[in-house]
Amino acid sequence: MLKRISFSFAISCCCGLVVYMLLELVGNVLLGRNDFSCMTPEYLALFPSETLALGVAVLCHGLIGATFAAATIIYEKIELGFILQNIIYFLLTGVVWIPVICFVWQLYRYPAALVSTIGGFALTYVVMSIVGYHITKKEVAEINARLAKEI
How far apart are CA 25 and CA 142, in angstroms? Predict the structure, then answer.
């Protein structure tokens, strides 16, 4: 589990950094806006330098990735059932990513962005749950078919 959490932290940090770099590249080079920043002015004002703000943001994205990985432990508790596992996973991860994203993106200052972000994440959870449910249901049917052949 520690290996999974560490790996997810590192991958999320790297992905966050790449996304920030691409946003800066598009804003500054392709759009020609020298004043472009992918971080909100309110977030940047919390730090003495933009570099430190970026570093904290990248580490925050790593924390989110680590949390998503750590929360998968709930799926090892098979007695809970798939739907309850998904609800618990949503709550466990939401307790971390919602405050972190609100801090990094300063979403509490932008209500429409806050609602759409939470809605987008919730929709993603629903889609992942539906897909996961169908995959699990298919796997159970295959196992049952194999067991029926053996009997």
Answer: 48
**Which residue from 34, 37, 57, 46 is spatially nearest to 104, judged by alpha carbons?**
57
Phi, psi angles (nearest 5°) of residue 49? -145, 155
Q: In angstroms, rounded to a whole number, what is the distance separating the alpha carbons of residues 13 and 58? A: 5
* Cα 22 → chain centroid: 19
The position carrying tokens 């298919």 is: 138
* pLDDT tens track for 88-131: 999 999 999 999 999 999 988 989 999 999 899 889 989 988 99
Check: CB of residue 104 under 8 Å from CB of residue 43. Answer: yes
Residue type, 80: L
Give the burial class of 14: count Cβ atoms within 10 A of its Cβ; 0-12 exposed, 13-18 middle, 19 or more buried.
Answer: middle
Q: Decide if 57 contacts 37 (C-beta within 8 A).
A: no
The whole model's pTM is what? Answer: 0.82
Residue with tokens 């059932």: 81
Give the Cβ contact number of residue 104 at 10 Å: 20
